[in-house]
Design a protein that fits this description.
heterodimer; A: 2 domains; five-stranded mixed beta sheet; globular; B: 536 residues; mainly alpha; MetI-like fold; two-stranded parallel sheet
């Protein structure tokens, strides 16, 4: 029998008497892995974390950590006995203690010293040195969130649960923390489940990503596959990193679209010749080429620092996103024509 | 089966609070002596009429004084405004019955005013010119100046929390100051004003000391008389039934208003400091004069009157066993506060941990005690103990329990508990409401058990609330009269009962010393907690 580090077997997650997410099966094989859960607001991501932490009970299925059942229909290990830490999205620092004391309280549960975590390092990493003597009401939401994260980290749990851990952190500081956080989680081998609505954060931090939609875990895979091989139209729409355009399968490696012409590539799934399909077109699938005779009208241009995302309109009024490096020589204004390189070759063709 | 401590303690508390209510309602159908017939044909309507007259008079006066002062100190900057902001709440330290003694002592024939006029203008027949504030007028004035603080505190807190944006919006719309007050400020503070008036109304209907001093027959004095003079407990309880219906209606109004008052408080973004209008010249003097008059009449006047008598009759000061009275008061204050705080903590934490609707219902029921007048509570408690002793105890052939509960500290503290439980429970509850539930959860997730969370997180966080509630309970216990009067052990006196006994024997000058001590102790407690009280 394989010993998985953490398992959720057929659990329905309930909050306030309502079923939020049904029949979830999820597996973390090895200690130290990071799992990110993505989904729209109110879908039940936080409920999942609260249930794993023992703050909510389950009616069916099992939650198992290190071969020990934490929750089942007949068993419920109390939160204080689980060695699972949860860092809440809102400020939940103890209001009558300063930041330093709050972080110190995290070490209360430290029963094993095997994880090499030093609270001073964590404080430095999260840039908390200047606010150690301040009380929670004297600090900003972002600082409170970082302090809460520090408290959870120093508690050195078997399983760390982070609910939108960087949602209140300033954008310029966010990426820096993401890098350091990933490093510290990897070094200390703390198995972590992160809930976030930021897909870039999830793709960067997670070894695995789970997409929760319409009360179900719709896809559970590594970040690359979730992005490039979404398993349903709902996942595509949720990630919002491409559009679906109508096409007809014309061969083993080709399809035809009314506006773009022939598109070639490797199908991820077999479709009989002549099938009408919805093709996933992501911003990086099309290449810019001013010399091309395939010209589309620019309706919008978003500058993202390293790149531009052009939104192009086809003859049949489809709006197609195209990624272009920001140093490209010829920038196009709205209403101008934008050339698309032909023939169009896509690495992997995902259709529905 | 595992015994749930939270359920048991909440259930016990509710059971104790239920005693007077159930007793009053069940004895409604009991036989009474023919005193009832006599009373029904003669005095009952007078009782009801007097109670209503008193109520209307007090409500009008407290509304004008309370809202007027709150408006002045909240919206205007004038000389003394900061002082009056907290000084006006000192009126809480003067119980209505002591105010009544002062009023009588000052205006009576050959009283203090007479002495002042004689000193200034020489001998003369001033008694005819001096107005007499006795009877209904005296009672209305005494109760109003003692209770207007409720309306003042709640209205001021509401004005304080009113958004500056709202007021500026009125200015932008071109409203005059008068129109802004009636169209924006007053409607927004209405729930707080109604809550304050409902509290005043409950206290007025419960008042025993001042109405009995002025010899006004109200439902409350009727209850006391039917029990003391006619030994008719059943009828006392039937009168209580009528009074309780009145009071529960007010309790309901107060509760609804309080909930609404919360909606008028901005939840996020804190309070933008209100720009006060700086008054100058005659307007500044007028505002100062109004507040000074209210402060003087409500607090300085009774204090000075009692001080005057204490000085000119020093024998009363020497004769009084102050240390014994002080000790008795401290014992009652300490026991009552400790028990109330313990059970309030237990119930509140139980509600928080279990999230049980039934437990919540029990808790809501158990706070109704504060609406019930002290006289009713005391009489109903005696009725219940007598019934229990004559039936249950007798049936099992056990030793009588009457002596344990009637005329004992235990009985006294139990009835105080019923009367003041809501104060302690709501105080702890409002402290708990400031602690986000996720803070408890964080504590559990850091490995703290429920008990450790309670001791390590809640108790340190709530220590200010506990201190404040302890002080508020102390003020109430020190001032409390009817329960202490009816249930105290033989020869056990407090400052309140001593003052009442002297006053009822027409020895007002002797009542001055205990009254003065009572006011001073209560004032010092109020000053310690004024910052919290002003938050409403």
């Amino acid at each position: 029998m394989q010993n998985n580090f953490f398992e959720i077997n057929n659990v329905s997650f309930v909050a306030g008497g309502k079923n939020k997410v049904n029949n979830v099966n999820l597996l973390i094989e090895n200690e130290g892995e990071i799992l990110c859960l993505l989904g729209p607001s109110g879908i039940g991501k936080t409920t999942i974390l609260r249930t794993i932490a023992g703050l909510e009970k389950i009616k069916d299925g099992q939650i198992i950590l290190k071969n020990k059942i934490l929750s089942s229909k007949n068993k419920h290990v109390e939160p204080e006995d689980r060695n699972v830490a949860l860092s809440f999205q809102e400020n939940c620092l103890f209001p009558h203690y300063n930041v330093e004391k709050n972080i110190d309280l995290g070490s209360n549960r430290r029963t094993r010293k095997k994880k090499n975590i030093n609270s001073k390092d964590i404080i430095k990493l999260l840039n908390l040195e200047k606010i150690l003597n301040k009380y929670p009401h004297e600090i900003s939401a972002g600082e409170a969130q970082r302090a809460s994260l520090a408290r959870s980290l120093v508690s050195q749990p078997d399983l760390l649960l982070l609910d939108e851990p960087l949602s209140n952190v300033d954008q310029n500081f966010k990426e820096e923390i993401q890098v350091e956080l990933k490093q510290i989680l990897n070094n200390s081998k703390i198995t972590t489940i992160i809930v976030t609505h930021d897909s870039y954060e999830a793709f960067y931090l997670g070894n695995k990503c789970g997409i929760i939609l319409n009360g179900q875990l719709r896809q559970y895979d590594d970040p690359y596959n979730v992005y490039h091989f979404p398993n349903s139209i709902e996942v595509v729409n949720f990630l919002n990193r491409g559009i679906l355009i109508p096409a007809k399968v014309t061969g083993e490696n080709s399809l035809e679209n009314e506006d773009l012409g022939t598109i070639k590539g490797n199908f991820t799934k077999h479709y009989p010749k002549g099938s009408d399909v919805q093709l996933l077109l992501q911003p990086e699938d099309l290449e810019h080429d001013d010399k091309s005779n395939l010209k589309l009208e620019v309706v919008d241009r978003k500058f993202r620092g390293t790149n531009f995302i052009y939104t192009l309109k086809t003859n049949s009024n489809l709006l197609i996103p195209v990624f272009v490096h920001s140093h490209h020589t010829h920038q196009h204004e709205v209403d101008e024509k934008f050339g698309i390189k032909r023939p169009i070759n896509i690495e992997h063709i995902v259709c529905f | 089966m595992r015994i749930n401590t939270w359920y048991v303690s909440s259930f016990l508390t509710s059971l104790i609070v239920a005693i007077p209510i159930v007793t009053v309602f069940s004895s409604f159908f009991e036989d009474t002596t023919n005193y009832f017939e006599i009373l029904k044909n003669t005095f009952l309507y007078e009782y009801i009429f007097n109670s209503l007259t008193l109520l209307v008079g007090v409500l009008i006066l407290t509304l004008i004084i309370g809202v007027g002062c709150a408006y002045l100190v909240s919206f205007y900057d004038f000389k003394g405004a900061k002082f009056f902001k907290w000084a006006l709440i000192l009126s809480f330290a003067v119980p209505a019955y002591i105010y009544a003694y002062s009023l009588t002592a000052f205006f009576e024939n050959y009283g203090t005013l007479y002495s002042i006029l004689k000193t200034i203008f020489g001998d003369g027949n001033y008694n005819k010119q001096i107005p007499k504030f006795d009877g209904m007028i005296g009672a209305i004035l005494s109760i109003s100046f003692s209770l207007f603080g409720y309306v003042y505190v709640l209205t001021r807190a509401s004005f304080h929390h009113q958004s500056q944006n709202l007021i500026e919006l009125g200015q932008n719309l071109g409203f005059t100051r008068q129109k802004s007050f009636f169209s924006i400020i007053l409607p927004s503070a209405r729930p707080a004003i109604v809550a304050g008036l409902a509290l005043v109304a409950m206290e007025t209907l419960s008042d025993f000391g001042s109405v009995s001093f002025f010899g006004i027959s109200t439902l409350t004095t009727g209850i006391y008389d039917s029990w003391i003079s006619f030994d008719d407990l059943a009828f006392a309880n039937q009168l209580s039934f009528y009074l309780l219906i009145f009071i529960f209606a007010l309790f309901y109004i107060e509760n609804i208003s309080r909930k609404k008052a919360q909606y008028h408080t901005p939840l996020k973004g804190g309070i933008k400091i209100k720009k006060k209008i700086k008054l100058k010249g005659i307007f500044s003097f007028a505002a100062f004069f109004i507040c000074a008059i209210v402060f003087f009449v409500s607090f300085a006047f009774p204090v000075l009157q009692m001080l005057y008598w204490s000085i000119i009759f020093p024998k009363n000061f020497i004769d009084l066993n102050i240390s014994q009275l002080f000790f008795n008061t401290v014992v009652l204050v300490f026991l009552t506060s400790a028990i109330l705080l313990f059970f309030s903590f237990l119930s509140n934490y139980g509600n928080r941990v279990t999230r049980s609707k039934f437990l919540k219902l029990l808790s809501t029921f158990s706070i109704t005690g504060y609406a019930i007048p002290g006289v009713i509570l005391a009489v109903a408690f005696i009725t219940f103990i007598a019934w229990f002793d004559n039936t249950i105890i007798k049936f099992f052939g056990l030793v009588s329990i009457k002596k344990i509960f009637i005329g004992s500290i235990i009985g006294l503290v139990i009835v105080y508990f019923i009367r003041f439980y809501s104060l302690a429970f709501n105080g702890i509850k409002s402290g708990y409401e400031k602690i986000n539930k996720s803070i408890d959860e964080s504590s559990y997730l850091l490995g703290y058990s429920k008990v450790k969370t309670f001791i390590g997180i809640h108790v340190p966080y709530l220590r200010n609330s506990v201190f404040l509630i302890g002080i508020l309970i102390s003020i109430e216990v020190i001032k409390e009269l009817p329960i202490t009067l009816i249930l105290r052990p033989f020869n056990f006196e407090t400052f309140a009962t001593t003052a009442y006994i002297f006053a009822s024997q027409d020895l007002l000058e002797a009542a001055a010393v205990p009254s003065l001590f009572l006011i001073l102790i209560a004032s010092s407690f109020i000053l310690t907690t004024s910052r919290y009280i002003l938050k409403g």
